[in-house]
Amino acid sequence: MANNYLSISDILVSNEKVPCRFLHDLPKLGFLDPSCTEEDLKAGTSVEIPLWLAESLSSRRPPLVAVDLPKVYKETYREIFNADACTVDLHKLAQYFFELGCYVAKYDIKGEVATTLVNTFRQRFKMILSASVSTDSINALQPLSSSERDRTASAMASEKALSTWLKRGDSLLTTANMVANHRKRKRAEMEML
Amino acid sequence: MDPYEIEFIGENRIVSIIPNFSYDKIYLICGEFGPFRAGLPMNVPLWLAVMLKQKQKCRIVAPDWMEVDNLENIKEEEKRSRFFTKMPNEHYMVEAKLILGAASEDIPNASEIKTIIKDIWDIRMSKLRTSMDALMKSGGSYGRLDHLTMMEINSVKPLLPAAMDELLRIQMMSKKTTPATLNSSTFSQSGTSQNT
């Protein structure tokens, strides 16, 4: 987790809500539960809180909450994923499926979430492969989760570059990325403005 | 990496040409190339050969491996074997594209050679894709990719290592099943210090 502190996608992932059960009474924190009418939060109420909050609350000694698995990682969905992972629309279901799964897998007693994650990843890899060579990119990208979409986009770009090279003979001379991003170049541009 | 960069690397290979002019030795950065005598074959880099051909100053001699029988054998070999066979040289696609593009009249049976090389390329690419998929399905730890040319490796460059990294990360993270590790306690400490 240390190297992901500043990564934007990691911040988005840890903002996803997970259901938790509060283990103690917490005075004056009733507002956390939108369906609660009293001022105090009773022990045993189940609230959806973001992952970053859940992690810190559950790692204190004694723990204040007990984290449950979100719906997508429970038994029923695990069966679906093990049967055929390619038909699931991960974008609608859980955009950050794999990353959130890594965090959530720690709270799973049986340890089956980990194997499900790995299996779904493997099965969906084939989808990424076929999406990268398909011409109908919008429909192909639709059911993929956010990280899968990044990988597919880069694969599509390299395929396109390869096919353009195969068709065309020559290319226009373009500046290399390294040169265009060099500090000296940028300074020269700024001085011209 | 762009395909054009690989073409650039592949252009450095030596091919043999027959110039139709005479000139002394030329001294280039990459080496010196012997006195040019009209009608006598000599070896130069591919980029130089293509440039001279476009100025109509030479004839390009087909490299040894670029003949119909040789390529047919390679194609059969490729179809039969499950792994990748050794290609006649590292940049066969680059050379074929450049030579057949610039000097197709110098090569006998140029159109047949073009089709055969395209077939070999297609067979290898589809084999590469299926083996990538099989790699991810089975173990994802390592795969046998010998005798792949640079161009083919480049086509899977962004996808395959990224996918394997992700797989490794998922496997590593989900192995830590104890909820109270050192990481999360420092995480909560830094969280509280941000609030104050």
UniProtKB/TrEMBL annotation, chain A:
Residue ranges of every copy of the DNA replication complex GINS protein PSF3 N-terminal domain listed in the record: 7-58
Keywords: DNA replication, Nucleus
GO CC terms of this entry: GINS complex
Domain annotation GINS subunit: ranges: 74-150
Transmembrane intervals: none
Record's subcellular location: Nucleus
Main localization category: nucleus
Lineage: superkingdom: Eukaryota
Pfam families attached to this UniProt entry: PSF3_N, Sld5
InterPro entries: GINS_A, GINS_bundle-like_dom_sf, GINS_Psf3, GINS_Psf3_sf, PSF3_N
UniProt record similarity statement: Belongs to the GINS3/PSF3 family.
Subunit (UniProt): Component of the GINS complex.
Cited function: Required for correct functioning of the GINS complex, a complex that plays an essential role in the initiation of DNA replication, and progression of DNA replication forks. GINS complex is a core component of CDC45-MCM-GINS (CMG) helicase, the molecular machine that unwinds template DNA during replication, and around which the replisome is built.
Protein name per its UniProtKB record: DNA replication complex GINS protein PSF3
Organism: Leptosia nina
Automatic annotation (TrEMBL), chain B:
Ranges for domain GINS subunit: 65-167
Keyword match Nucleus: yes
Keywords of this entry: DNA replication, Nucleus
A cellular component annotation (GO) from this entry: GINS complex
UniProt xrefs under CDD domains: GINS_A_psf2 (cd11712), GINS_B_Psf2 (cd21694)
Keyword Endoplasmic reticulum: no
Domain DNA replication complex GINS protein PSF2 N-terminal: 2-61
Gene3D superfamilies: 1.20.58.1020, 3.40.5.50
Compartments where located: Nucleus
Superkingdom per UniProt: Eukaryota
GO biological process, one term: DNA replication
Family designation: Belongs to the GINS2/PSF2 family.
Subunit structure: Component of the GINS complex.
This protein's name: DNA replication complex GINS protein PSF2
Organism expressing this protein natively: Leptosia nina
